[in-house]
Amino acid sequence: MKQNGIRSLTAMILAVFMAVGLVCGDARVFAKDEDTLVYGVNDQYRLDVLIEKATKEGKKKIVMQADADYTSDINITPNYVSWKGQDWRDKPAKRFITNSTETFVTFKSGVNIEVENIDFLKKGRPYEKGTKVVIERGATVHFKNTKFDNTVVNNGSATFENCVFVTGEIENNGKAIYKGTTKEPKNIAKPKTMDKYEPLTFKPAHDRFNDVMVGKYRKQFNWVRVSGSESKIAKISAKVKESDTGLEASWERNSLSVYGTPRRDGEFTVELRGETLNYNNEKDVAIKEFKIRVVKGVDKDVYEFDETVRKTFDQAIKDAEKQGKRKIDQSRSAITGDVDITPQFTHWYGTDGAKNPKRNDIGYGKNTVVTFKKDVNITVKDIDFIKRGNTGAKAVIEDGAKVKFINCRFDDRVVNNGTAEFDNCSFKTGDIENNGFADYKNMKEPKNVGVAKQKPQPKPEPQPKPEPQPKPEPQPKNPDNSQEKDGEKNKNKQRETDSNIKNKKANTSDEKNGSMAKSKVQKAESGNKGTKTGDDRSITKEVIILSVAAICILILIIGRIVRKRKK
């Protein structure tokens, strides 16, 4: 009795352990070793997710101990060498993959794998498309004991051993071998000839990257379109050709990235390389190079408002004031609150992040007033004060402020109470509230809805006094050819004497002629005087008569006085 009890107890314990083993074996995801992914859970974890994770971990084998009737697209990459179906005791067993929607299992170019006891099925209902197998050019796959409900697309090299093609067809554009019990399917592929082959090419959005600066981290993207008959299976890589630059390059989903903190200045080359196989299984290689220039370090007076600044623009300006910065370089769009530009700042430029001009905007998403405070003297270049809908940025210039705008855009009306100069700028409203002084260059002058001040006329500058002319310096005597010069001097003197004699004779004749002329002139003058005296005679006669009469009267008066005294 005791022995029977012990036996029954032992049997019960073994049964419990076996049951636990069955449960654990059917509900686990574990690795038999570091290189193997074991899928053992039915519908609890998606197979595509586990395979993607295993790919990143560098697994080499896949073991399915459960069916996968729900999964998304699966990519089998070159790191895998086997994919097998087993039961929980590690013995060969049939496993399947299916889905109600169309799902692709793609064996990527470069893979060399053996697939055994895995069926790629459709579900029972007619509208359910199930799993489709695609073998890329450059891939090598050996299928054993496999069933395909959908037509296989083979662009690489495939061996089918003891396999079943439910459709009885295959789209074979590569090489196919059929072994064992496999019935060779009908090939429905259209033959591809090299005269219709399009080589692998890269068509980038930009031919070069923006400049970057030494010591400043930057990441840039360049979208590149990959085209060609076999572009889908192309292996694409990117690198910076020069060493010790501090820059790296990468390729992902049609995007070429360059990033890092440059260590030295100069112009460097980013290489994008693609490799595929043409219809003759020959290599087709495409290479595209991009230039990137690294300039010397950051100006200590400049505050860089770029993608590394995780603040709004108004917060960044306050930081710049605290740091004593005098210049603002803006290389990205700015969402901001109200901003005060104080006299501390002398320039505000839009750049590409490496001192090159590039237009950037401010005001996106918020109502913003950018105020240029009294006594500021600043140049604003390549900055757009934008407005979208009812929100945007408005520029206000206080009395006493001086601002020069170059290549700027204003979506809202500018209010100018100070001094403003606009060079090649645009006003979306077509007007300005100018209550100060404004000049416009290389642009259409907006309508003023304010009251502009009159500019004071500048005082004329005093004319400089003429400088005294320097006296001519005496000509230096030349000792050379002195005898010849003396002879010439004597000849000149003789000529002068002869000319003097002639002049004297001429003068005497002139004097005679002159005396005769003088006498004639005097006679003429006397004649003129005679006419004058004749004219004045009438006046002198009247004076004389009056004088004589006055004298006579005076004599009579004196005579009477004398007579009275005698009496």
Task: Give an overview of the whole structure.
The chain has 567 residues and is of the alpha/beta class. The chain folds into four domains: 1-25; 31-191, no CATH class; 195-295, Sandwich (Immunoglobulin-like); 302-448. The chain has four helices and 44 strands. Strands 1-2-3-5-8-11-14-17 form an eight-stranded mixed sheet. The protein has a seven-stranded parallel sheet with strand order 27-28-30-33-37-40-43, covered by helices on one side. Strands 29, 32, 35, 36, 39, 42 and 44 form a seven-stranded mixed sheet that branches. The N and C termini lie far apart (224 Å).
Q: Structural class, judged by helices and strands?
A: alpha/beta
Low-confidence stretches: 16-31, 508-515, 517-535
Instruction: Please bin the fraction of helical residues.
Output: 10-25%
Spatial order of strands in the largest sheet: 1-2-3-5-8-11-14-17
State the helix count: 4
Number of domains: 4
Shape: rod-shaped
Terminus-to-terminus distance: 224 Å
Largest sheet geometry: 8 strands, mixed
The Cα radius of gyration reads 56 Å
How many DSSP E strands?
44
| Overall average residue pLDDT | 82
Beta-strand content: 25-35%
